[in-house]
What we know:
This protein is of the alpha+beta class and about 250 residues long. Helix content is about 45%, strand content about 20%. It folds into two domains: about 5-15 and about 145-245, Poly(a)-polymerase, middle domain, CATH 1.10.1410; about 25-135, Beta Polymerase, domain 2 (2-Layer Sandwich). The strands form two sheets. Strands 1, 2, 3, 4, 5, 6 and 7 form a seven-stranded mixed sheet that branches. Strand 5 and strand 6 form a beta hairpin. Helix 1 crosses helix 6 (about 150-165) and helix 6 crosses helix 8. It is globular and about 55 Å long.
Amino acid sequence: xxxxxxxxxxxxxxxxxxxxxxTPHRIRRQLIPLLRSWACPNLESVTxxxxxxxxxxxxxxxxxxxxxxxxxxxxxxxEIHTSLAAHFRDYLPRPRNVSLRIQFQNRSIDLVPxxxxxxxxxxxxxxxxxxxxxxxxxxxxxxxxxxxxxxxEIQALKIWRKRNTLRFPxxxxxxxxxxxxxxxxxxxxxxxxxxxxxxxxxxTATLPDPANSNNIVSALLTQEEKQRIATTAEMSLRASSWxxxx
Length: 246
């Protein structure tokens, strides 16, 4: 490994969530009784989703819990979100795009309720930001990222995002890395290639959901937000040393 590779890998290792950290699993177990009292008998499962099962979590990552509801669950998805917030009113609930964020044991937990489609692993979720629903397969999203072999690059990009205080939704960030790269033994060369993609192609790239091509994940950002990411990447490429980038 080159000195640049060693430096970058050390930064990633310092921020990466520990494989031995059982906290997300413990939180899931502790929240299940509260969730069952909200949705029983319609709650089919509560599973970890987001960055943890994908292997892209940092130490500061939130815990995402996917709440799979039976197909026969009644009521509009918007009302399901409202009832979930009411049930967790003592946990500082805050609506996000497809989730409800609560505070539990000094951690931010994102609860993602979704109604399963009959005879399918596809679910329907409610998008608060657009006041409409979307269909996707969370398990397929997880597989797509986990099998990419780009966990290091994705984690480095998340560190870079935080350092530059950029709005860059995590799933879009992951899809961007997968579009831009193929696994490369040199993490430093790979990350520079990723920055180049962000600076040049990202603002006009169309990035669909691998589980449903009708969902354009890149549409989560405005053109102004995409351009800010591109400009920041261009500035990073001009840096004279790695500590100026990460």
